[in-house]
Design goal:
It contains nine helices and no strands. It is mainly α. It has two domains: 158 residues, no CATH class; 114 residues, no CATH class.
Length: 284
């Protein structure tokens, strides 16, 4: 989600609520004989409010899993998840009097801090990576279709080489044209240097990782091959450029969503431990 002018109201309300909570905390902390305590009425009020906002932020996951639920707009839930989630962290700090307490509350605060940090990282990535993807991947496709598109690109490249070698025709209704001069050398270099890079296996390095390496590879091929097969080399280069962009898209997509593998499990653990903390506090 991009942070834009539509977030101003949420930011204002959250800052206002945090300011009110902070102002109310000062006389409470000064007047408490043994210091602020989560078990006091004021501390419990902060704790209940913070936990309620935390549960609301967690409900975003349920809202995403059932998009047909007409319980508010998805954008509204996302904005609430961001700003009210941050507000809940401040309220929980006030609830505990800015102290970690025992082992369970220490674990809870560490988990909460990690969740907030991972959420901020994810939010920053969402501001940067979509713009980067637009500029670096003009041939962007649906992420789930990347492997399928790679398979199609391999088939197109094989067909382009087969045409140059006189083994296939551009139009199925026609007979193949005679093999071009240098086609055998093209085929050899294609299977040695190009085809492995186009395979469905994810590219970890090599000529497809950067635009300059891809250009250098095909510039080298043109120096080795005669003019008649340069058209086929140009076609292969265009296919490889699309393959390179798909790999860039895959990598950016993984960065864009990878933080959730930290954020979500920690959030679930926090909710479970928060429930345990509430039960223990009420019983003892």
């Amino acid at each position: 989600m991009l942070i834009d002018a539509s977030h101003r109201r949420w930011l204002g309300v959250s800052l206002g609520a945090a300011a009110i909570a902070g102002v109310a905390y000062v006389p409470y902390a000064r007047g408490a004989l043994n210091g602020p305590s989560g078990g006091s009425w004021v501390g419990l009020t902060y704790g209940v409010a913070g936990t309620g906002l935390l549960v609301y932020a967690a409900l975003l996951g349920a809202r995403k899993r059932v998009p047909t639920w007409r319980v508010g707009r998805a954008q509204t839930w996302l904005k609430g998840h961001i700003w009210l989630g941050l507000l809940s962290f401040i309220l929980i700090l006030l609830h505990g009097g800015f102290a970690l307490g025992g082992p369970l509350t220490t674990v809870l605060m560490i988990l909460f801090a990690l969740i907030v940090a991972s959420g901020i990282v994810g939010l920053l990535l969402q501001q940067i990576l979509p713009r980067s993807m637009t500029s670096q991947v003009p041939l962007e496709t649906i992420f789930e279709q990347i492997d399928h598109v790679i398979t199609q690109l391999c088939a197109e490249a094989d067909h382009a080489v087969a045409i140059a070698c006189g083994e296939a025709a551009r139009d199925r209704k026609r007979q193949p044209d005679p093999a071009l001069e240098g086609s055998e050398r093209l085929k050899e270099l294609y299977h040695r240097d190009v085809r492995p890079l186009l395979s469905s296996a994810r590219v970890r390095g090599g000529a497809l990782t950067t635009l300059s390496r891809r250009e250098a590879l095909f510039s080298h091929l043109r120096t080795l091959l005669p003019q008649p097969v340069h058209e086929a080399v140009d076609e292969l280069e265009a296919i490889c450029e699309e393959r390179r962009q798909l790999e860039v898209q895959r990598r950016l997509h993984q960065w864009l969503h990878g933080w959730l593998f930290v954020h979500v499990p920690l959030s679930i653990a926090l909710l479970v431990l928060t429930a345990a903390h509430a039960v223990i506090a009420l019983r003892y």
